[in-house]
Amino acid sequence: MSGQEPHGLSIRGTLRSRLLINTLVDPDEAAPHLPAGVRPHLTTSGTVVGCCLLDIESVRPAPFGAMFGARIRAVAHRVSVEWDDEFGRTEVGVYVPTRHTDSRTAVVAGGRWFPGVHQPASIDLFDDGHRLDWRVAPADPNNQYRLRISASAGPVPQSPQTEPVGAICVGAAIGLSPDHHGVLEAARMTPDHRRAQLVHVSDLESEFLSQFTTAEPAPSYLMRDVNVVWARERAPRTNLERAGV
């Protein structure tokens, strides 16, 4: 997958804020949450599992100007993963088992016109430039991925990608997720910068993260004012597909 040009429809937008909440989990506990053909990515201390909270404006197909874009808030639950491409090279990215959004357009289009199935949710965000409060409540009462986070921004590190958790959560470019039929699909995110602030998480309630009994807090980050292009990528083939089953 490395070095391939994006193909098909591309999406542009501006991340007004991107909050990356992280934990470190035993890879043996993370592995059962992953699809065939994908394995946990290991840092020196474990596998990064977390939530990515996005406040995006001017979201639109790449050929259109920002004036035609929409405002979207979304949450993606993520596990750091790796897989082998068709040439046997190791690729690193994140697996996203579930996403939630307050955008009806994203719910309709995701997993159909563009990778990324989204479930509807009520999302409240308070952001005064220093403190962020997120509250996410899925519309489906049977969905167990409610989320509440309070965080405050700290100093800007020289480069978050020199720190193992920052390298995967800030540096990851490819996201894998199941479509509406459970088939793995992929999208590449290309930001115009990867500067990030460390954040102090003062309050966290996540029914997704609470599934992982080995989870320990890890460095979390905030990115602001990032212009981004998302493009479809080729998803990794599963072991069954390689065998011709």
Q: What tags apply to this protein structure?
A:
245 residues, mainly beta, Acetoacetate decarboxylase-like, 13-stranded mixed sheet, 51% strand, disordered N terminus
Topology diagram in text:
Blueprint: E1 7-25, H1 27-30, E2 39-40, E3 47-61, E4 70-84, E5 90-101, H2 104-109, E6 119-127, E7 131-138, E8 147-153, H3 164-169, E9 174-178, E10 184-191, E11 197-206, E12 216-217, E13 220-233, H4 239-242
Overall geometry comes to: globular
The CATH homologous superfamily: Acetoacetate decarboxylase-like
Order of helices and strands: EHEEEEHEEEHEEEEEH
Tell me the total number of β-strands. Answer: 13
Give the termini distance in whole angstroms: 22 Å
Bin the strand percentage.
over 45%
Q: Measured on Cα atoms, how large is the radius of gyration?
A: 17 Å
CATH topology: Acetoacetate decarboxylase-like
Tell me the name of the CATH class: Mainly Beta
Structural class: mainly beta
CATH architectural category: Beta Barrel
Mean of residue pLDDT values: 88
Low-confidence stretches: 1-6, 239-245
State the helical fraction: under 10%
